[in-house]
User: Fold these one by one.
Assistant:
Number 1:
Amino acid sequence: MTIFQATLQTTWQQTDWVTWQGLAAMPWWADMSFAAHSQRVFVCVITGSADGMEDLEIPISSLQFRLYRHGASHLSVAAPGAMQNIAPVEARKNGQIVLLQGFYHADGSRDLVEMARAGKISVRYDMGGRNSHITLAAGGKISFSFDPTIPKRSGPLVSYSLQADGHIRIRCAPVFGLMPGDWIQTPQGSYLVDRISVSVGRNQANMEILTA
């Protein structure tokens, strides 16, 4: 099964939240009530049409992306089993990395929606004595598929710190849709977002925000 679970809803217990402007309607894929009977999942697909092939879904163990208000952004995923992935991934290097998020239900069904995609794929293989994995990085512009009218509210605030250069660094549970240039509201005040870093793995999920 080409999914992994990220424990977004159970890691933090703080009562402070980070919010930013949006409407009140909650999309189905952001509804944490699913968590009682379904797994939150992220799925990676490598498109194949540019190489005359079908799309390829590969299992991933983690994903990361960094977004900057000024400058290029970065998207990467890591997948176990480099040997079995080498040939099919290399055959689709002219394609795009497409990330989907949603829920895997107890009956085996999935509800998924696209969250991001980017092209110009580069591939790195790491071979160990007993394990191996492949890292795919997208050097092209990241296109997100977020509805700007959905509520933009992160998970609970984990930490808030003032840096020596005067910028604020905020760590919280991620909700995807916040972008550089947005304004966020914390219990300490409102801030313009300059940089965002998100990391999601099997047992952790973090978002770090640096203000302008």
Number 2:
Amino acid sequence: MRAKRPSLETSRMVLLPCIRLVAHPIRFLRSAVAPSCLASLVRSVLASVAVSSAFLVAQPAFAQDAASIVEKADTIRFPREAFQVEVSIKSTSASGDEYRKYRILQKGGNNTIIQTVEPASERGQILLMKERDLWAFLPTVSQPVRLSLAQRLTGQVANGDLARANFSGDYTPKLLGVEKIDGVDHHALELTAVDRTVTYARVLFWVRTSNGAPHKAEFYSLSGKLLKSCVYDEYKTLGGKLRPTRLIMQDALREGDQSVLEYSSMQVRDLPDKIFTKEYLKKVE
């Protein structure tokens, strides 16, 4: 049977006489209880150090848990290996509906090519992302045009939503706790942008505790305004793993405005580094 841990009051009663004796060195040295007092003091100090050490060790572990959760969610959304995927986007707003289709080639999370497939009138337009630098290659323009990740691509979709879906590389995560959504436990995380080149300044992110699957996200501006929300839906086998194949992005400022992204035809494939360069894409044009 485990020994009962002494209470704070009991410890105080044991140590108080010792502390009084130590305050008078001569009396302490002559006292018959000096050895037992020293032992009590040592045990008390060691216990305090152990508690402090445990607390200090626990803090980085908690932070590491948040990073691990986000990294796993990233690998569920997209493969670690180089891959190709098709994404169709239907956007609805007060001004009408809009349809776009893109082919995405990505390697390592930091290298992305986005090719416009539909509409046919925009075919040949290409976006290239290297790290957080983004350029647009247009058939009618001789030189690539520098763009921001936060700029609108179509509907509720920003350039960075397709070009750089790398939460673990772009944000510092903090685990806020566990929340129930529709009766299911989810990790609630706050993601803070590592710098101002990232698509969003802040993201609230909910991930299922049982399997690490992303459920929803809210995207905020630098001023703290909610811009839009995203639901990760219709989990199916894609690229050899169960992934969300349907994303619903809703505008937080204009009710009813939304974009639905459908992912399909994902395949892991070898992509040479040379294709993710401005020089190569100029030749392709």
Number 3:
Amino acid sequence: MTLRTSLAAAVLGLACTFSIVAAEPFGAHEHGKGVLTLVVEGNEMLVAFESAAMNIVGFENKPNSAEQRAEVTAAIDIFNRADWFQFNADANCELTTAEANTDLLDTKFHHGHADFYANYQLLCQQPARLKQLQLTLFNLLPSLEQLQVQWSINGQQGATDASLRQSIIRF
């Protein structure tokens, strides 16, 4: 099993663990809310984001105009830039991969409740110094009110809720 597969399994396991604790199903489509999961193993980090499309672009059905298609494309670009989150500088984490997507772009999706997803890989030169996460996503997305943040950093787990008023997460 590759490290990427191992980390992906850890993200899923962590998400299931916190969902059981929270008594809510993981990935529940809920307007105003999202989920951010971080897993660090060694010096590699995976970050996974999920939220209802309504929170991101203001609609959740297949785009039906050029304007709506442009909004979806712009949102994907913003998530792929990955500049809406920053870790403390002394952990020296560098983005290696960013991949954002949405059900709105799936040719098999025709109507219903679409979501946005973003997955990131980072390489941290000093993972032991990883102490905080700054989120600026709430400034970009006023419809996103709360983000459930859950993490597993080299065996240490935690969870908290982030919002516009509480956008700095301390591990």
